[in-house]
Amino acid sequence: MRLAVIDGGQGRAGRASDHVRIEDVEAEAQRRLRICRVQEWRAREFITGIAVPADIKHFELQVNFAAQAICCLSPIPADFDDDLYWPTYWGE
To answer: Which among 29, 30, 47, 54 would be 20 to 30 A from 65, CA to CA?
Structure first.
């Protein structure tokens, strides 16, 4: 007798069994940080001495924390890139 795990019809056929690596989560975190241009803010701070806005710093901390928390899950969920797991940036 063979048993099979049923995905529950969540509409993510093929992804549920994919192996998610820590590098995938880190890449998603970097993608989200690029959206709010964290590197540009850091460069501006380095060049002009004007501090990175507090909301950008706070968002960066939240994204890094979320990435670390997701990487600690075993197994890492196949839908790790869903907005449910990540903070929202309400800026520009």
So the answer is: 47
